[in-house]
Amino acid sequence: MNTLLLIEDDALLGAGLRDFLADEGYRCLWLRQADAVAAQWHCADLVILDRALPDGDSLRHLPGWLALKALPVIVLTARVEVSDRVAGLEAGARDYLSKPFAHAELLARIRAQLRQLGDGSLRLGALCLFPARRQADWQGREVALTHTEFELLALLARMAGRVMSREELLNQVWGYDSFPSTRTVDTHILQLRQKLPGIAIETVRGVGYRLERP
User: Fold this and answer.
1) In contact, 200 and 211? CB cutoff 8 Å
2) Which pLDDT score, from 0 to 100, does residue 195 have?
3) What CA–CA distance (Å, rounded) separates 46 from 29?
4) SS3 at position 197
5) Burial of 150 per CB tally in 10 Å (0-12, 13-18, 19+)
6) Which of 77-81, 124-128, 145-149, 192-196 has the lowest mean pLDDT?
7) What distance in Å separates the CA atoms of residue 156 and residue 138, rounded to the nearest whole number?
8) Distances (CA, A) of 12 to 16, 50, 174, 200
């Protein structure tokens, strides 16, 4: 059973979604405030995030939560401008659903995100990753990567479109128990660029790296 983390402060909407998702066979954890999210983040397989929380725009918290664990996030919002959708995607969300919405559409989007997790594959343009067998295909051919190169590339791919700081990359790829220098990240990025010519890993000066969406 997949666990969904629902972050929604509206009592009526939140209760309705929790009950609907439970009826569809999901375990649904419902939170109404941002300060309770970090403690439950690791329990989830997917996050449904209301953008307007009592303490403001939830997108300002999203990069920090994703640094704890990379998860697919579907943002719910009453905002309909293109710039708002772009802001959600750049913060690390995978999908964006405008209020009001049909429960059936949300369910379809949840299933689509979980299917991608379920088959283990991740596809971004010419890049295909198969974590179960640690295989990376670039422009139709398999590329030999080390364990660390694969983990780094997979993390950038899961978070495509969002800038990942060197500290985030070090924490999630190398782990808190190891202490490589920040140049370690730069060296591995260079190796990925050499092995996957033309891959759009952008250097964000003074911050880190971003894998561009195709």
Assistant:
1) yes
2) 96
3) 11
4) coil
5) buried
6) 77-81
7) 15
8) 6, 13, 42, 43
pTM of the model: 0.61
Are the C-beta atoms of 2 and 26 separated by less than 8 Å? yes
Going edge to edge, which strands form the sheet with 127-130? 122-124, 127-130, 135-138, 141-143
Distances (CA, A) of 5 to 49, 66, 88, 94, 112: 8, 13, 17, 15, 16
Strands 141-143 and 164-165: unpaired
96 has pLDDT over 70: yes
Return the pLDDT at 170. 87
- Is residue 146 within 8 A of residue 136, CB to CB? The reply is no
Backbone angles phi, psi at 210, to 5 degrees: -140, 130
Q: What does the pLDDT look like over 25-67, one tens digit per residue?
A: 999 999 999 999 999 998 898 999 999 898 888 999 998 888 7
For 150, the enclosing helix (H) or strand (E) is helix 147-158
